[in-house]
Write a structure and sequence with these properties.
InterPro entries: ASHA1/2-like_C, START-like_dom_sf. The chain is of the alpha+beta class. It has 4 helices and 8 strands; from the N terminus they run ββααββββββαα. Strand 7 and strand 8 form a beta hairpin. The two termini are 25 Å apart.
Amino acid sequence: MNNAHGTLVAPDTIRFERLLPGPIERVWAHLVDPAKRALWLAGGPMPLAPGGEVELHFRNAELSRGDDPAPEKYREYENSGEVFGQIVACDPPRLLAFTWSDMPGEPEAEDSEVRFTLETQGDRVLLTLTHTRLWSNELLSVAGGWHTHLGILDDTLCGREARPFWRTHTQLEAEYAERLGIAG
């Protein structure tokens, strides 16, 4: 399950499931604490109340050592990039949902939404990530990106060296293009 591809559950929605080492409070901390989140996804503020302004500051080239440079189409985002949003729902330590936009102040109807749910399963935690309201031209990048970031989260929680972000993302984006029948 921890390397399983995301599943397209609707034309604009992809879902990932990962079974991670617990306890649930530890996984939750890696979602909401900016310093811990920066180890696998992106740092930045995230007030945990509905309407709280989310800022994610991506530094993908710093997530792992010995990585390849970003592919040409992502070169301007090799070690930068920002996403903005608002908290939609927060029920610690089981649910976190927020809107996702590349531009602050964009109309909410155009924002996609990211929802994490956590469920204890023995000494493990089932993390389910669902990203909805995606534009078709975002799907490959988002699928490869979440798959790679979640792999780095698993590496981090298991105490392993993080897999190379750009090398992994490039491979996974090609796999998703084939699996989903979308030209990359």
